[in-house]
Amino acid sequence: MISTSSEQAKQGFHTTSVRSQIAVDDGPGRWRIGLIVLSNDYAVERDFVNMRPSDEVAIFASRIANTAECTVSSLQAMAPRITAATELLVPDGRLDVIAYACTSGTVVIGYETVRDRIHAARPAVPCVTPMTASLAALDRFGAQKLAVLTPYVDDVNALIATHLEQDGKEISGFTSFGIEDNEEMAALTGEAIYQAALKADRPDADALFISCTAIRAVDVVEQIEQDLGKPVVTANQAMFWQALRATGCNANVQGYGKLLHLY
Fold first, then answer.
1. Burial of 199 (0-12, 13-18, 19+ CB in 10 A)
2. Which CATH entry fits the domain spanning 31-129+238-250: 3.40.140.20, 1.10.290.10, 3.40.50.2000, 3.40.50.12500?
3. How far apart (Å, rounded) are the C-alpha atoms in residues 57 and 108?
4. pLDDT of 109-121, one tens digit each?
5. How many Cα neighbours within 13 Å face the side chain of 239?
6. Contact 59, 202 (CB under 8 A)
7. What is the pLDDT of residues 120-152, one digit of tens each?
């Protein structure tokens, strides 16, 4: 016995058409941010979504393979994978900006290389990174002397310090959790980051810079800033700020520090 569904398929299946009622617009997101995230980063997508001023800011993410350890060699190994990760970001759709979400990776690989590998897939789209965005943010605050907090081991910290100094910054104090394992970085609590930030500050520092996209510093940046009485720039906050402004969105975002009030 032939089933009813088989009979229908044999005869041709017909739906009720609503094709005449199709209406289209430009798709979701008046302002669109493409985000390249490390495969074992738990924080940055969540941070970007939480900091959005409205649903009109759309985040489209792609993942890039990364090892369990944050070391100079593992960061270097990401470079050849950047273009392929970029190609997965809504390849037939509009993007206003692409953010590569690794502070230490940007320093190790070099901003120009990161940008060129992104542009190999999306040549017309502006590119931002957490380190270049953080430096731009610190410049907006006129901050030359910095207190720095990172989660990294010292081989990576040394490169961060050199990069800051080459940009003309003076380091008043450099404090680190000394973590190599990316899972441990992700598990750092907001309270641990808050307490470390208070210890990392120096009275003569113009601002506190908290490096790394993988830690949840955004959750406590407002509290740290209020307690220190000076600007606090975190990697994800700065990268979102620069990416958001690159889309043309000038919304004032509350709750994540003074930076997101600036245009």
1. exposed
2. 3.40.50.12500
3. 30
4. 999 999 999 999 9
5. 34
6. no
7. 999 999 999 999 999 999 999 999 999 999 999
